[in-house]
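pasting for ref
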Amino acid sequence: MPQQKPRLVNLDLDLVRAFVAVAEAQSFTRAGVRLGRTQSTISLQIKRLEEQLDAELFSRDPRNVVLTAQGEALLAQARRLLRLNDEIVGEIFEHALEGEVRFGAPEDFATTHLPGILGDYARAYPHVSLSVTCDLTLNLMDKMAQGELDLALIKREPIGANVGQSVWQEHLVWVGAGEDVLPKDGAIPLIAAPAPCVYRKRAISALDQVGRPWRVAYTSPSLAGQHAALRAGLGVTVLPTEMVPSDLIMFGSDQGFPPLADAEIALVRAGKSLALPAERLANFILASLDSRRAKADEQSR
């Protein structure tokens, strides 16, 4: 008996875009608002995509819309597909998308992860004016509330979907110039951003839990300022692993430092529905960070 050839499926990008919107909004209604469609239209599009793929993508009940295992597997690939589509359309029809996007991000995350993403976006849409603000999370949220930003990446506690959409997990570590900055007796000198700051909170909470005394020795909202203080031997700080400069060292249990809970980066939108240029940037960011996370997971295996 001849072997049956696999079925060739050409995905409808409108259906894929609806799927990503539902996954991100965790709601058919909110996804419809974002895409300018009714809830029933979104529901029908998801049903058609599930039929195309012969897979159940969402687990539904009256209150929740949750990705199934198959939906989780599809999400990162769907974002990549939409980003590739948007880049191609942007290159061919460069006059088709115009406007302004006001985007905010923490300085450390912006300098480490975003240059390539923002550069790709600017090349895909050369007639969109992209304005980037680097600031502390508290200030970014204030600007968002005042209508000064369309999109922002913020640092947050892992609290679910109430404040933005989780896009990146940060594994935090203790960092200093060398063990000679550690006092033999007395309080640990901390270098930190002004309160409220997730990293500052993590450091203080971890030290308090093990009963190790501390003092804030240097405060700076600038990552460059904190690095300068570290290199000058003024104390220790908390940073994500991938942001530790090569000339500084990480401390751990051998030096008496407790483990730190992870932090999150979340993407926050201004309102339920964004203008198309801002929505395109959101997809660029999500697709790129999905890809980086997948590579990091592969390297850690």
